[in-house]
Specification:
214 residues, alpha/beta, Rossmann fold, 9-stranded mixed sheet, two-stranded antiparallel ribbon, 11 strands, globular
Amino acid sequence: MATQAIILVGSRWHIPWEGGEILSNLLAEEGISSTRTDQGSILEPERLAETDLVVFYCEGRWVGDDPASRRLTPAQEADLVAYVEKGGGFLGVHGATVFREEYALYPEMIGGRFVTHAKFTEFPVRIVDREHPVTQGVEDYTVMDEPYIVDRTTDSDVLLAGVWDGEDHPFGWVKTHGKGRVCYLANGHDRRSLDHPSVQRLLRSAARWCVGAT
């Protein structure tokens, strides 16, 4: 059976459908078929049971009383986390660490929460762990993007560091959650980063690692 992925998109500040198409094409290069949607309802146990990888290119915190502000219902959140705990793969891209305070299970699974970002700019990204399958063969690079500052939990292994204001900031990590593999990559505000060759290589390698192919 072919490797299957779900890409959940949704954003007021980024390029959800265009970014989702870029991610879908990258997954296809790795032999992974994908379905793109902005509906959290796709994360039902029956569908997840047939899925090898879930990719989030979305936020879970919008504004005010907008009904879409709750990206996932509590049941969808629980089903997603249970899927990963049982061995499913999860790849969070850019705004995947932006979510509402009432998320009870997702924060521990993804391993961090967005705090803020500095002004959109060009900055270097340093490879911290060159031996991990996600980063093998990737050299330090410079990218135009949002310099994300994320409150990372301590149970993940940092692979990338964004460098600005004279400091290193965690910019990508991997972890396990139950039997599942989780990777978060902070690049991805728009095409300027999603089209970057190093970012694309990282995304492809991360997808392979999350589904246990490397």
